[in-house]
Design a protein that fits this description.
Layout (H helix, E strand, L loop, with lengths): L28 E13 L14 E13 L10 H15 L15 H9 L5 E7 L5 E5 L2
Amino acid sequence: MTTHVKPPHLESSAPASTEPKSPASKLVTRIGRTYRFESAHHLPLLPDSHKCKNVHGHNYRVEVVISGALDARGFVMDFAEIDAEILPLIRKVDHRLLNEVEGLENPTAEVIATWFLQRITGCESVRVYENDDCWAEVKIS
């Protein structure tokens, strides 16, 4: 019969702790959701020679990140609750000339991201894609 002996550095009389390693440690949970909308816009503050001064459109993608402590259900926020808050905003901008939406008179991707962030409870960051390659992100620091 073989007897296995733990090396001294693995011996412990106390069980492993599941508590954070220090009182200052705290968990932050982040969740994200992606939305899409199609809209036209023009950027009125650009010189006449810039192509984006003219009306044009994008298939926008908006990525929203919400962070916080888990609630009694184990959620930062239920995705259905996020939808209830964000889908009305999407309806305000989908298939619209963004320049006509209050707060989006100069609808750069940066301004659009800020517009969403300011209207979403618990939102940590918003990233707005104008296409697959170009995006702007705004986050709370």
